[in-house]
Specification:
Length: about 950
């Protein structure tokens, strides 16, 4: 065990704790912010079923035995639960009374049950007034552990068209802080006492672990809920309380909270919580959170009201027509997830709570957009739910789109929509360029298959495709179609066909000639929703003297190969030209590519550029002939502002990824990126960030790295001095803050002397004044300042982390502390990850693993520190695995390998692998060695040889000033 004296409050204790004296002792949307500190590496290719090109309207077969039979369906639930969570008692008990319809004559009724102990079950008549009448019989019951079917067998045949009640008494165990089902979590109050709470998260298949139910999205019913709990706690649910809590007749220390009857809804949307939280109220909304973060609930309450109103106005359907109130609740140690339960949206604390004194603009952006995402679900998912999980994109795609669009509507000064291009569309491309990726419509049978559908395809790709059609059809037609769709399917389930029907009706009513004759919305959208991947639109210009034409062709884009593919995406395309630039998309400005190739006329002289996909609203990449790439490069070098900033981001992202896929020469994006010296917008810079990161990761630690540093330094030469990296101005916009952090991070990363000096001075000044750095620059100042910090300064930042109860701030400080380069400081910090005892009670499990991943992610010094930490002794590795898990060790080895670029680093990796021996699986070791070999082999690949030569030439050729 770790020594008790490891309370790190003074530097002597800190450094003693990090020494080998410890040798005897034995890491999202909805949604984690990308860090500008940690250098990301190439994502692993997605794995999944290989998708064939046949049958575009297929519904691939799955194991249907997991589905419920159709002989009965629920009408209403009355659910009563009893919990003693205030005592940290994980057992709960309950009774559910289910009113159900009989559709076919049957002697069995089947519900779903996961790990609940069903004690008794009874069949009741329906009495006058629709209430439960006399008991008919006690029924036999059995649960199939594989399908989770709870089958209740009756002694009589229930006739079709009849109704009955089932009463089921059961017991269960609260799950442990895993964000599934009915689960327990906890927090420390201001007196360091641990307080416990219980809350629910049922999507997609976890309601059955809280009570026996018809746990499928289409099987909607109304709900009445009562919760019996400690009289010192409060309960909250989807609906308002039905009166004050009633004393429990069996125990004076308990009360029962009852709630009003809900609208008809899916089981996965039922929600409740029992806690001792404080409540903040404004209008018809409330926020629940632990009392020691009460001041951090003001902004989410204000944002909740503003965003819900904006969405209601946009879809022209008021939320309050269906639900009387809205509650948001912040669950401790729930990570950065959130759940859209109707009327009771639950969040992990970092994405709901906001304190302007300690949280940054990035936190505020996350809070704003995630509230918008969850509130969009109140219509897309709650009012209209998917018929089956195959259509989960009808929930998550719309919520991802309106996560940004509703934030823009509510807070136009934030320019949130600019982030949609780089955070959603370009992120979706990365995952969707794999040969094995699934299409948007994809069936699932088992709970594990269903859970796997909540992926980048469901969120980012689907949001991108939906936005493409919003733009191509026009926002007015789109909104008309959405209202038609939701009005027709309200309180019911929907398939993709229902959405297409609503949009088709909107076109007929408002723009009957917008689409080509005979083409339907279904044909257009199905070519995207039922096929995997996305197209590459190739534009080949003819450059004739008498007329200007271009040949357009399409092929599915894959990141690592070219494969013949017969599928035709119906692509809405638009373009603009250098001689008459107009980057404003309009529905009338789109044409449709409905074949593999087509020749079109263009209005651009042969010496003027052409750009397709204005503002990158279309979900496809674009490639050009070599001359047009030259024209675009020349235009950006001459005056970037003649091309819209979203298209500048598109050109950078497309060119780099086309080069990585060997569709164009790697010199094309490298030449293109040199224009960044004149770039002042965030979107193009962050789009270029993946390319800069790739080359930085490949070349660091090699003889070629200095040439890359010269190249990168020249890009930053003009913009860095304009940004005042060490101060905050009141007039700075959200996107300017993003830009400033990006540029500052890169300037310091490549060793810019002024950047490193200013960050160090800012940290020293803050330490001397004992005043935390302004949150909007804290990430850059703490990380880069700690690179050369004294032990006293390091401990000062660590103390802020240790004393903070704000999870978002704690994450920022973990990432910053990992930026230290002093081996003893890093060793001490890694030791904290394994800390035990009261001084470490506030550490979350996710924080412990993040300390390790942030350390090896921050730079080579961190990689060496993790290696040294794991080399201390086998006992220390054993404790590492016991505390953090085998996955954390496997990830550490894999990430160390991915950051190994030379023989000396390989020798260190081999030393670690030899020391670990059988403590890591052979597959992890083999993959690590393969990763390093791939790193080395890159320098003898065509891409590597050309890139290295390019950087060398760029670094040694005099540049115009």
């Amino acid at each position: 065990m770790m020594p008790r004296q490891l309370l790190i409050t003074v530097v002597c204790c800190l450094l003693v704790a990090a020494t080998p004296a410890l040798a005897g002792r034995p890491a999202w949307k909805w949604l984690a912010e990308p860090s500008d500190i940690t250098l990301t590496f190439e994502p692993e290719e997605l794995t999944g079923e290989v998708v064939s090109d046949a049958a575009p309207n297929r519904r691939q077969p799955v194991d249907e035995t997991y589905r419920l039979p159709n002989n009965t369906s629920p009408v209403h639930y009355h659910l009563a639960l009893r919990t003693a969570i205030h005592e940290n008692n994980r057992q709960f008990s309950g009774t559910v009374m289910v009113l159900f319809d009989v559709h076919e004559p049957t002697t069995t009724v089947t519900l779903l049950n996961r790990a609940l102990t069903v004690q008794r079950a009874f069949l009741h008549e329906v009495a006058t007034g629709g209430v439960a009448g006399p008991q008919i019989e006690q029924v036999a019951h059995v649960t199939d552990s594989r399908t989770e079917h709870l089958t209740l067998t009756l002694s009589q045949m229930l006739p079709a068209g009849s109704q009955y009640f089932l009463r089921i008494e059961f017991e269960g165990t609260l799950q442990n802080n895993n964000n599934m089902g009915f689960f327990a979590s906890s927090y420390l109050d201001n007196n360091q006492n641990r307080r416990y709470l219980a809350s629910s998260k049922f999507e997609p298949t976890h309601a059955r672990s809280a009570f026996p139910c018809y746990d499928e999205p289409l099987l909607k019913a109304t709900f009445e809920l009562e919760l019996t709990h400690s009289k010192d706690y409060n309960a909250v649910a989807n609906m308002p309380a039905a009166g004050a809590p009633v004393p429990d007749p069996d125990n004076a220390d308990y009360v029962t909270s009852r709630f009003e009857k809900s609208p008809k809804m899916s089981t996965y949307l039922l929600a409740f919580a029992v806690s001792d939280f404080s409540i903040r109220t404004a209008e018809r909304q409330t926020v629940y959170a632990r009392s020691n973060v009460f001041e951090e609930t003001a902004f989410p309450l204000e944002a909740g009201n503003t965003i819900l109103d904006a969405l209601g106005d946009y879809v022209d359907i008021s939320y309050y027509d269906y639900m009387p109130k809205m509650t948001q609740i912040a669950i401790p140690d729930r990570g950065t997830g959130a759940m859209e339960n109707w009327g009771l949206v639950a969040y992990g604390e970092p994405v709901l709570l906001f304190n302007p004194a300690i949280n940054s603009y990035r936190n505020k952006k996350s809070v704003t957009t995630i509230i918008a995402h969850e509130y969009a679900h109140q219509w897309f998912g709650n009012l209209v739910s998917p018929h089956w999980w195959e259509y989960i994109w009808l929930n998550e795609g719309f919520a991802t789109l309106y996560e940004y669009y509703a934030a823009q509507l509510a807070y136009p000064e934030g320019n949130y929509w600019d982030l949609f291009t780089v955070e959603v569309i370009q992120n979706a491309f990365s995952a969707d360029a794999s040969e094995t990726v699934r299409p948007m419509n994809w069936n699932a049978g088992s709970p594990n298959e269903i859970a796997a559908l909540f992926d980048t395809v469901a969120y980012d790709k689907s949001g991108s495709v939906l936005n493409m059609f919003r733009m191509a059809l026009g926002d007015g037609v789109w909104r008309y179609g959405l209202k038609t769709y939701m009005s027709a399917r309200q309180l019911d389930g929907a398939t993709a066909e229902h959405l297409y029907s609503g949009l088709q009706e909107a076109l007929v009513a408002n723009a009957p000639t917008l689409l080509p004759a005979g083409v339907t919305v279904r044909q257009l959208m199905d070519s995207w929703t039922s096929e995997p991947g996305f197209p590459l639109l190739t534009v080949y210009r003819t450059y004739g003297d008498d007329k200007q034409e271009a040949i357009l062709s399409q092929e599915r884009f894959l990141s690592n190969k070219k494969l013949p593919n017969a599928h035709v995406y119906l692509i809405p395309y638009d373009f603009t030209t250098g001689n008459q630039p107009n980057f404003e998309p309009t529905p009338e400005g789109y044409a449709w590519l409905a074949s593999k190739a087509q020749k079109i006329s263009i209005n651009a002289p042969k010496d003027q550029w052409i750009i397709f996909n204005r503002q990158q609203n279309g979900y496809y990449r674009v490639n050009y002939d070599a001359h047009n790439w030259d024209l675009l490069t020349q235009a950006l070098h001459a005056n970037p502002e003649q091309i819209h900033h979203r298209n500048r981001a598109q050109l950078l992202n497309d060119a780099y990824n086309l080069a990585r896929a060997e569709q164009i020469d790697i010199t094309v994006p490298l030449r293109l990126m040199e224009y960044l010296r004149k770039e002042t917008e965030y979107a193009p810079w962050t789009a270029a960030g993946s390319a800069l990161t790739f080359f930085n990761n490949k070349l660091r630690g090699t003889e070629h790295y200095d040439h890359f540093l010269v190249y990168a330094n020249r890009l930053l030469l003009d913009i860095y001095p304009t940004l005042a990296a060490d101060s905050v101005a009141a007039e700075e916009t959200l996107l300017h803050k993003y830009l400033k952090q990006f540029i500052t991070t890169w300037a310091c990363r490549i060793g810019h002397g002024d950047c490193l000096t200013k960050m160090k001075q800012a940290l020293t000044a803050a330490h001397q004044a004992n005043t935390p750095v302004h949150p909007d620059i804290a990430t850059a100042v703490y990380c880069n300042g700690l690179a050369a910090a004294s032990d006293e300064e390091f401990v000062w930042v660590y103390e802020q982390f240790k004393n903070s109860r704000n999870q978002a701030q704690r994450t920022v400080l973990i990432d910053a502390l990992a930026c230290a380069r002093n081996p003893s400081q890093l060793s001490a910090f890694l030791t904290v990850a394994l800390g035990s005892g009261s001084e470490f009670d506030a550490l979350l499990a996710s924080e412990r693993t993040r300390i390790v991943s942030a350390t090896y992610g921050a730079g080579r010094e961190g990689v060496d520190a993790v290696i040294d930490f794991l080399l201390v002794s086998p006992a220390q590795v054993t404790e590492f695995v016991q505390r953090l898990g085998q996955t954390a060790l496997n990830n550490a080895v894999s990430n160390i390998a991915s950051r190994t670029n030379n023989q000396q680093e390989l020798d260190r990796l081999n030393q670690l692998l030899d020391s670990l021996g059988s403590m890591v699986p052979e597959s992890v070791v083999n993959n690590a060695r393969s990763t390093v070999q791939n790193n080395f082999n890159w320098f003898t690949s065509l891409e590597g040889l050309v890139a290295v030569e390019y950087f060398e030439k760029a670094a040694t050729t005099p540049q115009e000033l």
